[in-house]
Structure formats: structure tokens, C-alpha cells
Specification:
It is a single chain. This protein is an alpha/beta fold and about 325 residues long. The protein folds into three domains: about 70 residues, no CATH class; about 100 residues, no CATH class; about 120 residues, Rossmann fold (3-Layer(aba) Sandwich), CATH 3.40.50. Helix content is about 50%, strand content about 10%. The protein contains 20 helices and seven strands. Strands 5-4-6-7 form a four-stranded parallel β-sheet, covered by helices on one side. Helix 7 crosses helix 11. The longest helix is centred in the C-terminal third of the chain and has 15 residues. The chain is globular and about 55 Å long. The chain binds iron/sulfur cluster (SF4) (2 copies). The site of one iron/sulfur cluster has 15 residues, from helix 2 and helix 6. The site of one iron/sulfur cluster has 14 residues, from helix 1 and helix 3.
Length: about 325
């Protein structure tokens, strides 16, 4: 269950700093859950800390480490809803046009909802769909994912169309960790699974992992379902012998430090230092990622081969 504790509960212990990519990048306490909570305790409004709020990557690493059980990402999204929104015109226009698109019938009980990066990599998307044996949803909800992240209210007609496209579904596999968390809260009875969990449960993928791999967990979906997924990845770690991007508290260290303005291309991303930190001191021969954003970050800073989970089986066949 998600805690309802807010900024008032913050004791200032600073544990959240240790896992925060924003803080690692800046060494500025204002850019951390601690900084937000203390500013709010001293009477700051959302507008007063707007720049800091837009810097947050929503990786969710601070949620499970907070001893006061503050729902930090929930607090940040709530504050973003009170701000002038980043990219709001584009996102609203996308939602309006999606709401009007005629609904195509898809007969399936399980569907895949890709994220924006996968939509831009159709070959990998087809490979994932073939590996899992499921269709890609005709309504991917990528505009809704952006609206959730930006704190923009989702238009009711748009939500109706999105949900209407789910008729007959028993399970939905979702690539965007933040959308997954939002939908779980909205529809607790529906069976939502992250793409990382779905692929890492696949027997072929599991068999293809090696002891010399670094397996990089996508942090948003993982931290949103931390207590259950810790066990899933513990089993995978024991079975494969691979290294993981986990710290001692089994928090997933994010490989990127990308904020929404950076994701939207309004500011150039600068993930190099964070990706280097994840690789620091490791002796590995391959990096296996769940997210294409992580792949792009690693490929910029290392010559070590980087593969997506869905490409592992082919790697094994080719002996790479
Ligand atoms: S969600 Fe991630 S980036 Fe944002 S405050 Fe928490 S740890 Fe830092
Ligand atoms: S971990 Fe929680 S209680 Fe500690 S400083 Fe961060 S937000 Fe405050």
C-alpha cells in the first residue's frame, strides 16, 4: 500500500540523498527529497521550488529508503500539478487527437504498452512482441504517460478511449514505469506487469544471462513495486550470477539523471557522470538493460557491449 505521509513527516535524516541521481549530479541538497520537504516545511510554495521540481527524474529511489515512509514521488507529482506545465501545449494536443482516433478492435487477453523510446525503435518493439507472443496495443498511452509525468490533468475523453481499448484484457505489460504506477493506483484490480519483469521471467532470456553481465534494472517500475520485485530480482541474481545495479539496500541505482525537460528535448541530457558511477569499479563483459534510455546513456560512455533484454537470445545464438 502507498503511504500517505507527506513533507511534514520529514526528519531531515538525508538517507534519500545517497540514492538520488539529482543530488549526485549537483551535490545541492535543494535538489533532493530532503530539500523539497524542508523547503515546504518552511512555507515554500510549489512555484518557489519549481526549477527543483522539474529537475527530479522520478526514478523513485527515494521512496523505499525513506524511514518516515514519505511518498516522495507522489508528493512531487502533486506539486507539479500546481505549476505552469512543461510541454503542456504539445501534450494536450496529442491527447485531443488520440481521443478522436477511431477505435480498432484487437482480440487479445494480454497486450504490450510500449514507451516513447520503443515506439521510436520499431524493430526492437516487434522483437519484444514476438518474444512475448503478444500484440502491441493499438492505443499505447504514450501521451498519457507524458501527462502523468508533467502533472497535466488527463482529459476524460482521452482516458475513456484508452480504457475502451482494453476490452477483454486480463493482463497489460507496460514499458513506462511511471505510467505503470499511475495505472495501478487508478485500477488496482487490473493485472499490470512491467516490461522488465515480463522479459526477465522469460525462460530464454533467463538462460541467456551470464555471470560476467551487468544487469541494469529500470528504476521507476522497480521502486514502484519494490517489496515484491526485490524477491524477483534476488532469484534472477542467484540463478544467473550476474551483477546488478543494486546498492546494499537493494535500491536500483539509476543509470540516467534525465529530467522531463531533458526527455522532451528542451534541455540537452547529461547522463555521463551517472552512467559512469553505475559502471565504476566493475569487471564485466556485457551490459544488459531493460530500458532504451539506459542503453543510450551507456553507449555514450563505454565500449562494453550493451544489449536490451529482448536481444539476449540472439546474442547467445551468435556467441557474442
Ligand atoms: S525520485 Fe529520484 S531524482 Fe527524484 S528526488 Fe527521488 S531519488 Fe531524487
Ligand atoms: S529520507 Fe525521508 S525523512 Fe529522511 S531526509 Fe529524505 S525525505 Fe526526509
Amino acid at each position: 500500500m502507498i503511504s500517505t505521509n507527506d513533507h511534514a513527516a520529514c526528519s531531515g535524516c538525508s538517507l534519500c540523498l545517497l540514492v538520488c541521481p539529482m543530488w549526485r549530479h549537483s551535490r545541492d541538497i535543494a535538489l533532493s527529497a530532503h530539500g523539497y520537504a524542508k523547503a515546504l516545511q518552511h512555507g515554500a510554495s510549489a512555484n518557489d521550488i519549481a526549477a527543483e521540481l522539474w529537475s527530479c527524474t522520478l526514478c523513485g529511489a527515494c521512496d523505499p529508503v525513506c524511514p518516515e515512509q514519505i511518498n516522495v514521488t507522489g508528493m512531487i507529482l502533486d506539486l507539479r500539478r500546481r505549476l505552469e506545465h512543461v510541454g503542456s501545449t504539445t501534450v494536450r494536443a496529442r491527447m485531443e487527437s488520440e481521443a478522436l482516433r477511431p477505435l480498432a478492435i484487437q482480440h487479445a487477453t494480454v497486450k504490450l504498452l510500449p514507451d516513447q523510446a520503443l515506439l521510436e525503435s520499431p524493430e526492437l518493439l516487434s522483437r519484444i512482441a514476438a518474444l512475448l507472443g503478444i500484440p502491441v496495443a493499438e492505443d499505447d498511452g504514450a501521451d498519457i504517460a507524458l501527462a502523468v509525468e508533467a502533472g497535466i490533468i488527463i482529459q476524460p475523453q482521452r482516458m475513456q478511449r484508452f480504457l475502451a481499448s482494453w476490452r477483454g484484457l486480463k493482463k497489460i505489460i507496460i514499458a513506462d514505469g511511471l505510467l505503470l504506477k499511475h495505472l495501478r493506483q487508478l485500477l488496482p484490480a487490473m493485472n499490470f506487469v512491467s516490461l522488465g519483469e515480463a522479459l526477465s521471467t522469460h525462460a530464454v532470456v533467463r538462460r541467456s544471462l551470464r555471470a560476467t553481465d551487468l544487469y541494469v534494472i529500470e528504476p521507476r517500475a522497480y521502486h514502484a513495486d519494490f517489496h515484491r520485485l526485490v524477491k524477483h530480482y534476488d532469484r534472477l541474481r542467484a540463478e544467473s550470477g550476474s551483477a546488478f545495479n543494486l546498492d546494499l539496500q537493494r535500491i536500483a541505482i539509476p543509470a540516467t539523471s534525465r529530467s522531463l525537460p531533458q526527455r522532451l528535448g528542451l534541455i540537452a541530457p547529461d547522463d555521463n557522470e551517472q552512467a559512469r558511477w553505475v559502471l565504476h569499479g566493475r569487471r564485466i563483459s556485457r551490459i544488459v538493460v531493460e530500458s532504451l534510455e539506459d542503453r543510450a546513456a551507456f553507449e555514450k560512455i563505454t565500449d562494453i557491449r550493451v544489449v536490451h533484454l529482448a536481444e539476449l537470445a540472439e546474442d547467445k545464438v551468435c556467441g557474442k
